Amino acid sequence: MARRQQCGALDRLLADVRAGRSRALVVRGEPGIGKTALLGYAAGTAQDFGVARAEGVESEMELPFAALHQLCGRMLGRLDRLPGPQREALGVVAIGLKLVDQPENTRTSPPNRV
User: Fold this and answer.
1) 20 pLDDT band (50/70/90 cuts)?
2) What is the pLDDT at residue 107?
3) Which of left, alpha, beta for 18 (phi over 0: left; psi -120 to 50: alpha)?
């Protein structure tokens, strides 16, 4: 019964998005309760959407923006469609497309690729 309710909530969320309303979804819970299955259901139901996925990998835990890089790496060809501030934030800071200098008074080492 609970799974049917959860799938119904996902169906309503997707219907809202199809109608042009912005929505966000947070799926959380203990390991093994079916979060991945719910996301699989949503992706299968949303075949008319572009679906991007990322997976948490313990070996990447120390890498900043690793999941964001997984999500956006295949979409870099469309980076120019974003407004300037978002393009800069995503392309420079998160994906590391160019060097960013830190102010002299905060630099502890040579400029890093971020």
Assistant:
1) very high
2) 44
3) alpha
